[in-house]
């Protein structure tokens, strides 16, 4: 009973006692005060978290912080070409900043930086009091640590809440990073005007120097800019800037960074800032560089939000295949070809129209960003015009005179003189002429040109029009044009793959096909309506570019096989319809694709992926694209080390039989020697190639080159227009290639095209295709006997098997005679071989 009674008594006592005691406490005043204080503390904690601590950025971001850096584009030899950035910045380590520069910024912004723990309490209290008494939000008084917190982790909101968050975050930063690390972040990311972020970029923007080359007064000037760069711009507020700079110099002396002599000399120094300038870029290769930019944006994105390797913030180092000398040759050759055709056709009109008001002509001109770089041509804007002359202005602010006599060419398609058509706001091309300027005409006709290394697929040069700043459309990669007869080597390569030989006889005669009830019968004809020449060899048909022989060969091979090879060699992304007209170049393609297809022929039929970018490195030097990139060990050795030469692993697939590809290369060498491109013969080196003229003619083409480089180009109007009956690839496009080759191949070894294993070089009569035994090829390219390339057991034979069975004795006698005479193998050994 006692055991049961005791728990009941204890429970009853505890409940009643607690209730009584709590009732008594509630009547005590001090208990009520404590309860209210606890409630307020809890609410304060919740409010503190909600207002200041919630969503506060992690300081860990600062440890891994990487400021936005420009992407730098370089040529194949490492030469800087272009950089892309929204913020111009060069990142330095703390040790690379001069001590006087650090002293200048500390004197101007935070002289107790190395003593405080992140917050300037007196300054913060003073700013808060001033804000409360004036009714405005607090400004200034932020330490460098607080500025880092604001600029890197917070917003630019001006409020008491943000100030408190800034102070809390500054405490965290000081506990996580050293003072030197905080200063490094600050000096690398601070905005200092003129699109310069960080002190190194600002040194270049204001003084055209590196920070290590600046003087003491220049250090002091940069230190005043964080307060508001626009307030101290040298072009508008030079006096105010000098006064503020001198104040910083005084603070540096007071803080012990400089002595009196240094102070006096610095106070007497002028500001010394250079005029504002836009970043200078070499206009060479504008189309190439823009194509690189497009590819980078497709791969990595444009802005910081796209990822760590974005084009405008990722700090990428991009090595391209760009060759400056080859680009110069291609650019000059294509431009002069365009001007040569366009000359005498009248003024093509202004490049742009840029209306302006008052004295705003310079900004109106600069907004169009036209920077002509052809010879001494310059872009200008018409400021005003009188009866005898026009005043013109240039991007550098200078002006000049365009007299009436310097603009007397007729206006194309309208009549009247160009001078009469000029009006203020016209952006025109001019060139100096004896103290004044003369009007120039940008050609209406355009075109594209690409140069590729057929051994690797690397694009060495690209020109997509007359000038990238005038015509942004890249005709080398974006213009879809009909290739005309330049497609024929691909057609005949398909025929070679399917049993034909270079000596196969094809009839150059009428050929018609029934296309169905809707389209009826279609009859093909040679270019210019030339009549058929009867049975001829395949080689002759290619060299003379005979349409009738091409469709005969395509029909015999099967158009499904022909268009399949066109797709495999990259001429078309998707398979063309199997119509015979595509064998004559009816399908659309680009210069880039045609050049790559010819490069595949030279590369023994192995696939090539045309590339402009060799590799991309991130800001730390790691290659991030291509993903499977591997360095070629020992490839850059200055001297041979006696070991086998390094050879990159070939991973490309075979898209065309190697022997068929070589046969076509060997045949198209004949186009240069005695075909439609004999203008190139005096270059005196092995060259393969093919001219092309599309229907109209609307476009003229040439694609070809040597084992080191394949180049291709087309010329035509953007809106396809008849070029005139005289226009042909051999008379307009081939001379452009020749002008290019004379410069680009200068100094290069004269190399033959190499034949793959199995090719047999046989003497034939180039007219009949029959094998020749008693004569040898001579130096005359039009000689009757030539070397021809055959696959094993496909060369022409002297006798048929029936002849051998009917006259075995005579055959034995002939064999004996042949053994006594000279043999092909003897000749090949004596000449060092045929490659």
UniProtKB/TrEMBL annotation:
Pathway per its UniProt entry is:
Cell wall biogenesis; peptidoglycan biosynthesis
**Residues annotated as transmembrane:** 29-52
Which InterPro entries does the UniProt entry name for this protein?
A: Beta-lactam/transpept-like (IPR012338), Glyco_trans_51 (IPR001264), Glycosyltr_51/Transpeptidase (IPR050396), Lysozyme-like_dom_sf (IPR023346), PBP_transglycosylase (IPR036950), PCB_OB (IPR031376), PCN-bd_Tpept (IPR001460)
Q: Which UniProt keywords apply?
A: Antibiotic resistance, Carboxypeptidase, Cell inner membrane, Cell membrane, Cell shape, Cell wall biogenesis/degradation, Glycosyltransferase, Hydrolase, Membrane, Multifunctional enzyme, Peptidoglycan synthesis, Protease, Signal-anchor, Transferase, Transmembrane, Transmembrane helix
What Gene3D superfamilies has UniProt attached to this entry?
Biosynthetic peptidoglycan transglycosylase-like, DD-peptidase/beta-lactamase superfamily
Membrane keyword on record: yes
Which compartment or compartments is the protein found in? Answer: Cell inner membrane
Q: Where is the Penicillin-binding protein OB-like domain?
A: 347-445
Q: Where is the composition biased (Basic and acidic residues)?
A: 791-829
So what EC number does this one have?
2.4.99.28, 3.4.16.4
Query: Which stretches of sequence are listed as region Disordered?
Result: 791-835
Describe its membrane topology.
Single-pass type II membrane protein
Q: Where is the Penicillin-binding protein transpeptidase domain?
A: 447-740
Residue span(s) of domain Glycosyl transferase family: 79-253
Query: Keyword Glycosyltransferase, does the record have it?
Result: yes
Q: Which reaction does it catalyse?
A: [GlcNAc-(1->4)-Mur2Ac(oyl-L-Ala-gamma-D-Glu-L-Lys-D-Ala-D-Ala)](n)-di-trans,octa-cis-undecaprenyl diphosphate + beta-D-GlcNAc-(1->4)-Mur2Ac(oyl-L-Ala-gamma-D-Glu-L-Lys-D-Ala-D-Ala)-di-trans,octa-cis-undecaprenyl diphosphate = [GlcNAc-(1->4)-Mur2Ac(oyl-L-Ala-gamma-D-Glu-L-Lys-D-Ala-D-Ala)](n+1)-di-trans,octa-cis-undecaprenyl diphosphate + di-trans,octa-cis-undecaprenyl diphosphate + H(+); Preferential cleavage: (Ac)2-L-Lys-D-Ala-|-D-Ala. Also transpeptidation of peptidyl-alanyl moieties that are N-acyl substituents of D-alanine
Q: Which family does it belong to?
A: In the N-terminal section; belongs to the glycosyltransferase 51 family. In the C-terminal section; belongs to the transpeptidase family.
**Name of the protein described by the UniProt record:** Penicillin-binding protein 1A
Organism name: Sphingomonas plantiphila
């Amino acid at each position: 009973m006692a055991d049961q009674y005791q728990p009941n008594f204890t429970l009853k006592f505890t409940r009643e006692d607690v209730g009584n005691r709590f009732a008594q406490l509630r009547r005590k005043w001090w208990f009520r005060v404590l309860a209210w204080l606890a409630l307020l503390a809890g609410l304060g904690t919740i409010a503190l978290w909600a207002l200041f601590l919630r969503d506060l950025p992690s300081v860990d971001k600062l440890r891994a912080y990487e400021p936005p850096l420009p992407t730098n584009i370089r040529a194949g030899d490492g030469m800087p070409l272009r950089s892309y950035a929204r913020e111009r910045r060069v990142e330095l380590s703390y040790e690379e900043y001069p001590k006087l520069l650090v002293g200048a910024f500390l004197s101007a912004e935070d002289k107790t930086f190395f003593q405080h723990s992140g917050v300037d309490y007196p300054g913060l209290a003073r700013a808060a009091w001033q804000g409360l008494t004036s009714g405005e939000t607090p400004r200034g008084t932020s330490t460098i640590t607080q500025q880092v917190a604001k600029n890197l982790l917070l917003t630019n909101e001006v409020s008491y809440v943000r100030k408190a968050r800034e102070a809390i975050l500054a405490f965290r930063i000081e506990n996580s990073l050293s003072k030197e690390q905080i200063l490094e972040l600050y000096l690398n990311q601070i905005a200092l005007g003129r699109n310069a972020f960080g002190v190194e970029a600002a040194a270049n923007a204001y003084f055209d120097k590196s920070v290590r080359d600046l003087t003491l007064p220049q250090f002091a000037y940069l230190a005043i800019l964080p307060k508001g760069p626009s307030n101290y711009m040298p072009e508008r507020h030079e006096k105010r800037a000098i006064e503020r700079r001198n104040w910083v110099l005084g603070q540096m002396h007071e803080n012990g960074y400089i002595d009196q002599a240094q102070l006096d000399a610095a106070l007497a120094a002028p500001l010394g800032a250079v005029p504002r300038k836009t970043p200078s870029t070499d206009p060479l290769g504008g189309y190439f560089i823009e194509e690189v930019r497009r590819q980078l944006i497709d791969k990595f994105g444009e802005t910081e939000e796209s990822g760590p390797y974005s084009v405008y913030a990722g700090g990428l180092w991009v090595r391209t295949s760009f060759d400056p000398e080859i680009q110069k040759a291609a650019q000059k050759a294509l431009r002069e070809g365009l001007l040569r055709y366009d000359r005498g056709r009248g003024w093509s009109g202004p490049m742009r129209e840029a209306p302006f008001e008052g004295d705003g002509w310079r900004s109106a001109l600069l907004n169009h960003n036209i920077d002509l770089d052809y010879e001494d041509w310059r872009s200008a804007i018409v400021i005003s015009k009188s009866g005898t002359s026009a005043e013109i202005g240039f991007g550098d602010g200078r002006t000049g005179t365009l007299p009436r006599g310097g603009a007397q060419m007729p206006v194309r398609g309208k009549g009247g003189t160009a001078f009469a058509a000029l009006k203020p706001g016209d952006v025109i091309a001019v060139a100096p002429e004896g103290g004044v300027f003369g009007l120039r005409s940008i050609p209406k006709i355009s075109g594209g040109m690409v140069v590729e290394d057929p051994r690797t697929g690397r694009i060495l040069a690209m020109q997509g029009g007359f000038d990238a700043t005038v015509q942004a459309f890249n005709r080398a990669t974006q213009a879809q044009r009909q290739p005309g007869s330049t497609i024929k080597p691909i057609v005949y390569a398909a025929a070679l793959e399917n049993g034909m030989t270079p000596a196969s006889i094809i009839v150059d005669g009428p050929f018609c096909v029934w296309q169905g009830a809707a389209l009826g019968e279609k009859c093909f004809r040679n270019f210019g309506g030339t009549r058929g020449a009867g049975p001829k060899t395949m080689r002759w048909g290619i060299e003379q570019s005979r349409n009738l022989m091409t469709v005969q060969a395509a029909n015999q091979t099967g158009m499904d096989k022909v268009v399949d090879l066109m797709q495999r060699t990259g001429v078309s992304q998707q398979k063309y319809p199997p119509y015979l007209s595509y064998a004559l170049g009816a399908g659309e393609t680009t210069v880039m694709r045609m050049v790559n297809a010819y490069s595949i022929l030279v590369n023994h039929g192995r696939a090539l992926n045309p590339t402009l970018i060799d590799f991309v490195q991130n800001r730390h030097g790691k290659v991030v694209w291509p993903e499977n990139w591997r360095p070629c060990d020992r490839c850059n050795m200055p001297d041979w080390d006696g070991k086998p030469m390094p050879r990159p692993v070939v991973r490309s697939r075979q898209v065309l039989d190697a022997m068929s590809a070589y046969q076509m290369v060997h045949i198209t060498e004949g186009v240069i020697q005695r075909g439609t491109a004999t203008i190139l013969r005096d270059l005196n080196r092995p060259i393969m190639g093919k001219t092309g003229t599309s229907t109209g003619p609307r476009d003229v083409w040439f694609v070809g080159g040597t084992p080191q480089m394949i180049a291709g180009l087309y010329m035509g109007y953007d809106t396809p227009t008849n070029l005139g009956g005289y226009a042909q690839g051999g008379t307009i496009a081939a001379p452009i290639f020749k002008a290019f080759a004379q410069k680009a191949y200068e100094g290069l070894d004269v190399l033959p095209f190499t034949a793959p294993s199995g090719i047999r070089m046989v003497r034939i009569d180039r007219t009949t295709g029959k094998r020749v035994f008693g004569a040898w090829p001579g130096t005359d390219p039009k000689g009757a006997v030539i070397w021809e390339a055959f696959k094993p057991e496909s060369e022409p034979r002297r006798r048929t098997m029936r002849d051998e069975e009917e006259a075995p004795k005579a055959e034995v006698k002939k064999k004996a005679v042949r053994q006594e005479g000279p043999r092909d193998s003897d000749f090949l050994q004596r000449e060092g071989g045929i490659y």
